[in-house]
Amino acid sequence: MLTGTEVLTTAQMRAIESAAMASGQVTGLELMERAGRAVAGHIRLRWPKAGCVTVLCGPGNNGGDGYVVARLLHRAGWRVRVLGTENMPGPDAAEMKQRWAEIGGIGPLTERGLQGGPESDVYVDAIFGTGLTRPPEGEIASILARIFGRGGDGAYHCSRVVAVDCPSGLCMDSGKAPALPPGRGTFDSPARLTVAFDSPKPGHLIGLGPMLCGELIVADIGLIQWRERNLASRGRRPVRLEAIWPRFDIPDARRIEFSLTDRLGKHPFASQHKYSHGHALVLAGGPAKGGAARLSARAALRIGAGLVTLAPPQDALPEYSSPPDALMRRALDDGDALRGALDDTRINAACIGPGCGIDRAAALLAVLLPTGRGTVLDADALTALSQDPGLMAALHGRCILTPHGGEFARLFPDLAEKVEATPSQWPAYSKLDAAREAAARCGAVVLLKGPDTVIAAPDGRARIHSAFDIPWLATAGAGDVLAGIITGLLARGFQPLDAASLGTLIHAQAARLFGPGLIADDLSEMIPQVLRDLA
Ligand SMILES: NC(=O)C1=CN([C@@H]2O[C@H](COP(=O)(O)OP(=O)(O)OC[C@H]3O[C@@H](n4cnc5c(N)ncnc54)[C@H](OP(=O)(O)O)[C@@H]3O)[C@@H](O)[C@H]2O)[C@@H](O)CC1
Ligand SMILES: Nc1ncnc2c1ncn2[C@@H]1O[C@H](COP(=O)(O)OP(=O)(O)O)[C@@H](O)[C@H]1O
Ligand SMILES: [K+]
């Protein structure tokens, strides 16, 4: 079973929080107490022996949560030092600050304040949360650099950091964090923990978010009924955002179960034959184009397309004779030949781009796209597309574009520029925004690759897959395999967004199971095990 969780933007989160408080059934103070209790609880779970903690409290409600954490850890026997900003917080945070002030002191949240005093076992970052309106500057930026950065010896200044809702300075909508050191290598560090409230936000999963957050825990603070009502009543369901992952076990987050994988394993066998599992056509390139299309074709076969035909031009056909023998091969020299082949309506999915050659891809796309076939466009097909507005205009809802960052920039230069721009205000424009805008613009599913893959459909639905734990997947040919897997799923009858999502997940999981040392050829061989585990 494929599972995931709903992802909310910060604006949606604020709307839900307000709706909950407006209902009169819960107060802001109660929500803050629950939030602080969740953080303190996870600290105690991870470090059961009470030690020394420094809690850094900002000017808003995130700071308010920090004062709750301080109080609860003090009650549990921890030695607590609190540094706070001097601003007048809102009423709930002011109340929590006051309750702490009855127990202990509050030092100034300054660099000197942070450096003075004994070293703590744990630092709690409650400076900014969803209320961050712009990148932090000045002294607060220096404090954040110290919390999340390394010293000259490479060791972290603050060895164990627990972020309340998010690492302060991270834009929770985009994963951008211009004021923070990138924290490379901290992913999964046992010393880095983020306790987010209610739902993950995009910024926890994309951009610098995963590196800065470390382990992500999503704590339920009792907002589920308002979340359901709020999102449903605004008709937001069709554009909801989901994260898919087999690996992050987010204990308290609401799980979404996609029943997608059922259809791969279980069939009413009596009525099935190979053609009911689809026929995928992989359009390969001329002589000496390498093995890219072969990687795609093998993957399409492994994922369960009933038949897969690999189609290079006649003069390259001998180069494509290597196993697997289950692959069919036929020469397709040009657009006319392709037109003839596509008279066979049983060919229901195509993969074009890997090792295809740009000119050949352009010529074949001109025939392929008007047929409305499920089509994955990768590599050379994306370059061909970026050079020909006519082809771009011929894209349709059964197309899936699978660009990496460079290909995306060639296809949608204005959107790539917006993603790259240094933000001056939050929410910053993100990779997710760009993929969504691109999908709406071209009318096809856009799967923008990277350690964080975002998949967007033209109707606004989007999925995020965060794979920062498998850097060895960045290997030559891995993208060709992904294109083949998705093509196979299209042949099997999956809708484009589902085929792209499930394909991304299976591809990553294959890499995860294999481990370091992976080459692209290994991915397809891991697919059967991934399917067994998902079933
Ligand atoms: N979701 C939930 O259900 C619940 C959420 N809760 C918690 O509330 C948090 C959100 O709280 P929040 O809205 O008060 O915002 P928060 O992040 O504390 O910061 C706002 C303050 O920062 C300031 N400020 C902003 N940018 C700045 C900058 N660059 N540099 C300097 N200052 C800057 C800004 O001032 P201004 O922009 O007006 O200058 C304002 O004073 C949320 O993350 C969670 O922890 C729980 O308590 C309860 C349940
Ligand atoms: N750092 C990384 N961690 C995990 N996965 C990655 C990383 N970088 C790239 N990937 C994934 O590896 C694959 C690489 O695809 P692509 O860039 O098209 O490579 P190629 O053209 O060599 O096949 C994509 O699925 C992408 O999402
Ligand atoms: K924080």
From TrEMBL:
Signal peptide: none annotated. In the C-terminal section; belongs to the NnrD/CARKD family. The gene is nnrE. PROSITE patterns: YJEF_C_2, YJEF_C_3, YJEF_N. (6S)-NADPHX binds at residues 61-65, 129-135, 165, 292, 355, 404, 480. Its EC number is 4.2.1.136, 5.1.99.6. This is Bifunctional NAD(P)H-hydrate repair enzyme. Keywords: ATP-binding, Isomerase, Lyase, Metal-binding, Multifunctional enzyme, NAD, NADP, Nucleotide-binding, Potassium. It comes from the Bacteria. AMP binds at K449, G450, P451, D452, T453, G479. It catalyses: (6R)-NADPHX = (6S)-NADPHX; (6S)-NADHX + ADP = AMP + phosphate + NADH + H(+); (6S)-NADPHX + ADP = AMP + phosphate + NADPH + H(+); (6R)-NADHX = (6S)-NADHX. Homotetramer. Residues 13-229 form the YjeF N-terminal domain. It comes from Paracoccus aerius.
